From TrEMBL:
PROSITE patterns: VWFA. It comes from Streptomyces griseoloalbus. Residues 62-245 form the VWFA domain. SMART domains: VWA. This is VWA domain-containing protein. The lineage of its organism: Bacteria, Bacillati, Actinomycetota, Actinomycetes, Kitasatosporales. Pfam families: VWA_3, VWA_3_C. InterPro entries: VWA_3_C, VWF_A, vWFA_dom_sf.
Amino acid sequence: MANFSKSNVPQFSVDVYQNEYLPEGGREVNAIVTVTATGGGTIGSAVTASHLYSPGEGPSAAVVLMVDCSGSMDYPPAKMRNARDATAAAIDALRDGVHFAVVGGTHLAKEVYPGDGTLAVADAATREQARQALRRLSAGGGTAIGTWLRLADRLLASADVAIRHGILLTDGRNEHESPEDLKAALDACAGRFTCDARGVGTDWEVKEVTVIASALLGTADIVADPAGLAADFTQMMETAMGKEVADVSLRLWTPVGTTVRFVKQVAPTVEELTGRRIEAGPRAGDYPLGSWGDESRDYHVCVEVPPANIGQEMLAARLSLVVPRPDSSVRNLGAQGLVRAVWTDDTAASTSINPQVAHYTGQAELAQVIQQGLDLRKEGDIDGATAKLGRAVQLANASGNADTAKLLAKVVDVVDAATGTVRLKAKVEEADEMTLETRSTKTVRVKK
């Protein structure tokens, strides 16, 4: 197993890409903010507080695996076997010293391992005990995902660790609790742990799984063939084990008279953050970014500034990164970015759209029109669906989003990608449609 020390904490940086020039009276300022965490060997980083780590190990972490054990997991019987194998593979990928538990989910939530209301600590012995316990997993009962999440939250809260993460697998719709119950559970768990969600097969509801992952700042995906679960679970766990700093927030300060129009993640996926703002003092707010390892993500920040005359300039926003301290204060990660506004009568300067801003505006539209097109297709609006999915093909082609283009080509026949001329396929495999819907928010970065 990998051995980490405090010097493994990554160094954060913030880069801002924008066209700061506005015409006289112009008010809208857009910027793409790239946040990067690199070089987990940085010594003296601002976040090397002792509470982030267990002695001699990497960042202290806890993981709860939530496995659907509803009756439908027995159809076909291989599905339950694949789920057990995948959970075992994920447990094998745990770093020594990580706290973990397994929950079996039906219309109730049951502790499968260790089963005593606590978390086990990963080593050779506990991994083997967990594998033995997985053999007792069997299918039977309904589906109430909110109860699984609440139990995971209680278990994760029992460990004094820096990083708390869940992995959730379901094969069906959340039929045994109301949407309000699920939302209440997600609201209760948000900010307490992150969670990756997976749907196996094709009998589950895409929007339920993506809402879970979105609320808990994790990833969502489809595993159409249960045989692929073990590889997917292993990859998810390896990614979770690479997280080194938890609960990072983007702090946005704006001057008097400036309004934040929106803040959204735009890479590697589109994720709306505007409504998640937590006030952080005069004219400042924090937007949760979740847990980080060595990685880079892009965010689109849009603010509205007071109108000004030619030649004037102002600081439109100041961005920084913070993490919570045990005493409820925050620690600044030392990375900062500035968003500026400069009013000019140079038409060429004020009408030029920054390439990063233009690209991600298109990627956000791509995610939106795919969702709209698929919804219209389900409603039987062929013309509307064709128009939306045609626009999606056009945007995917223009931005070089080859993965999304391939998924779209399984739902529509592409006549001309450049103009977005398409025909809906008469017959579409359910797995292909669900894959497109689940992965519609995945983006590509700006072409260099």
